Amino acid sequence: MSDIKKVRTTVDIYGQQYVIVGSESPTQIKLVAAMVDEKMREISSKNPTLDTSRIAVLTAVNAVNDYLKMKDRLEQLEKELKKEKD
Amino acid sequence: MSDIKKVRTTVDIYGQQYVIVGSESPTQIKLVAAMVDEKMREISSKNPTLDTSRIAVLTAVNAVNDYLKMKDRLEQLEKELKKEKD
User: Fold this and answer.
1) Residue A25 φ/ψ, nearest 5 degrees
2) What is the pLDDT of residues A17-67, one digit of tens each?
3) Can you tell me whether residue B20 is helix, strand or coil?
4) Which residue in chain A has the smallest CA separation from B11?
5) Closest to B60 (Cβ–Cβ): which among A56, A78, A84?
6) Interchain pair B18, A73: CB under 8 A
7) Which of A83, B55, B56, B79 has the most beta carbons within 10 angstroms of its beta carbon?
8) Does residue A7 carry a pLDDT above 90?
9) CA atoms within 13 A on the CB side of A66
10) CB contact, 8 Å: A13 with chain B?
11) B56 part of contact set with chain A, CB < 8 Å
């Protein structure tokens, strides 16, 4: 049995309800859902002909791109910190 | 006129073609698209009844969650680095 407590959080994203199950707190999940909802509405307003599925995929592309950039910055900073400590 | 050169990259995500326009290199966009595609297939295999739109939204939720966690770690590291330098 897993020790990680599974939390169920219901959120509303782009007019649809989702039950998110995971180890994150409902506060965190609601923040994430609000960010996804906002990004979807932003992409939709710039591309009014796109359907929900394509808007959601482009939102995921955006988020993964931001994630990778953040990861690069983190790795750079870790190197810098290691140099400072040596 | 913007100085940032806009690059158009065509990618295939979950069986659909997308033209991504932005300042990122095609290599970066293709990597991002492959990660989104992989995550969508992973979520789909665990939840075979979900439609593409819901799979894409859950992929975006995942990516934004990872992004926020990475951002927290980065901020912590920045503080640590500042302390080392002081």
Assistant:
1) -70, 150
2) 999 998 999 999 999 999 999 999 999 999 999 999 999 999 999 999 999
3) strand
4) A61
5) A56
6) no
7) B56
8) yes
9) 20
10) yes
11) yes
The verdict on a CB contact (< 8 Å) between A81 and B81 is yes
DSSP SS3 for B61: helix
Which of A17, A27, A71 shows the shortest CA–CA distance to B58?
A17
For residue A68, the number of C-alpha atoms closer than 13 Å in the C-beta half-sphere is 16
pLDDT tens string for chain B (86 positions)? 556 689 999 999 999 999 999 899 999 999 999 999 999 999 999 999 999 999 999 999 999 999 999 999 999 988 988 888 77
Per-residue three-class SS string for chain A: CCCCCCEEEEEEECCEEEEEEECCCHHHHHHHHHHHHHHHHHHHHHCCCCCHHHHHHHHHHHHHHHHHHHHHHHHHHHHHHHHHHC
- Specify the pLDDT at position A42: 97
CA angle B78/B83/B85 to nearest 5° reads: 95
Preferred mutation among A11, A12, A57 to probe B, highest tally of B CBs within 10 A: A57
Number of Cβ within 10 Å of residue A17's Cβ equals: 8
CA-to-CA distance for A72 and B73, rounded, in angstroms?
A: 12
